[in-house]
Amino acid sequence: MTGGVASSLGKGIISASLAKLLQSRGLKVTIQKLDPYINVDPGTLNPYEHGECYVTEDGAETDLDLGHYERFINLHTTQENNVTTGRIYQTVINKERKGDYLGKTVQVIPHITDEIKRRIKLLGKKSNYDVVITEIGGTVGDIESLPYVEAVRQLKWDLGAQNSMVIHLTLVPYLAASGELKTKPTQHSVKVLLENGIQPDVIVLRTEHPLNQDIRKKVAQFCNVDSDSVVQSIDVSTIYEVPLLMKEEQLDLTAMRKLDLKVSKEPNLKEWTAFVEKLKNPKKEVTIGLVGKYVELPDSYKSIMESLVHAGAVNQVKVKIESVHSEVIKVQNVADKLKGLQGILVAPGFGQRGIEGKIEAVKYARENNIPFLGICLGMQCAVIEFARNVLGFEDADSAEMSRTTKHPVIDLMEEQKGVTEKGGTMRLGAYPCEITKSSNVYKVYGKNEIQERHRHRYEFNNAYLEDFKEAGLQPVGINPDTELVEIVEIPEHRWFVGVQFHPEYKSTVVNPHPLFVGFVKEIAEGK
Ligand code: GLN
């Protein structure tokens, strides 16, 4: 899957939709993202750069598109599903140092392109997938994308015509002044691909207005494809409708024909359609405040937002998310800033900026009995707030924010103490947690053994465990191997839960996450 004309056209959603359709016909499918930047992974990137960093079960810090893949196909992705230019070069350079290429000049072609091809093929071999969809980040024509495009060109020959295909996604802009849809950018984009030796098999056209037969024919003619290989991707109100639209456009059938996949089964999209129906027909609306410091870019909290969408659909309520910048929340204005919110979610994050606003938001939710969910840093803020205002430790803080506090209620994990490198060194991926059976979160999960994904360096400081318990902030989820506190709740409160892990990474259309479902349910049905 390649893209042209503009970025952000939705390659990830189209890839995930095609994967969903093929999967619903009984095929084993996965999706992979190749990112042409030099960071080894997106873990070191500020969310303002590329949106949230998505974490997989095996602890890989990845591009947010992997979140879409998991939400659509309901399967775990892994480290192999996201590869960056940095990782490719790192592998090749390490091999060079080892002497694997002894005597040879190491070059972009063939060494880098070979490594790209190896990474694409590896995934298919490792887990025996019928289809691997590989999404190439960026747009064709970018300098960074060239080795990837070349690898795709070669791979088409290596795999053979019926074992590979290229889908190219472009934009058909609408000129309001003349009332016309324009195909020229698409023609140019396909020309770039052709110059690089790739004839796309299918062209997906992103558009704001329906494309008529003439436009489809024109694109087919100018871009060398048959007319049923021109697919319309029209703007819709929810991304979850895209698989249904792609089915109407028969993208799955076209792909199966090109790949010579003989599947007689009709796609089973019952569950999916029911979800979209519920999503589009809410019975009421609730407003939840998302308190974070990256709220200017909604992609920074992509998985949280989607989890709330899933939870809304289950409860048949429309969840309106009101983003509140944590930096603007102060003691004097907190009531005003959070006015009218029926639930408050304090987001994950790193560093000092905006932390005091988050703590104020927690206090407001706790004192006013407003349903509260704190995720990772959000949970840590709940612990700090409780320590300051209930336990009376006025200077309580996280060791991340203050080195001098006498009450580091959140402290650096033992295993993190000697760590100096930033990339890939946090506590990452899935860890077990045991939930106390008498707790409220137990009712929400319906089980006491869970696995949730992590991405942090700091933790609840167990030296204060008894103080918190006595005063009413209960540790109700514990890692059975390390005794680390994973979940805290205030039983007296209507719904006050803080989790050290990231539940948002595990919410999918088929399996909406119980914590989000419970949170939204309480807001929708509670007092
Ligand atoms: N900064 C905190 C830590 O490292 C929280 C991280 C997060 O919210 N993901 O522990």
Task: Looking at this protein, list some descriptive labels.
globular; alpha/beta; 4-stranded parallel beta sheet; 527 residues; 9-stranded mixed beta sheet; binds glutamine; 18 helices
Task: Tell me what the structure shows.
The protein is 36% helix and 21% strand. β10, α8 (213-223) and β11 form a beta-alpha-beta unit. α12 (302-315) crosses α18 and α14 (355-367) crosses α15 (377-389). It is globular and about 75 Å long. The mean pLDDT is 95. Bound molecules: glutamine. The site of glutamine has 11 residues, from α15 and β19. Glutamine (GLN) binds at residues 348-350, 376-377, 380, 400, 455-458.
Offer a concise description of the structure.
This protein is α/β, with parallel strands linked by helices and 527 residues long. Helix 11 (270-280) packs across helix 12.
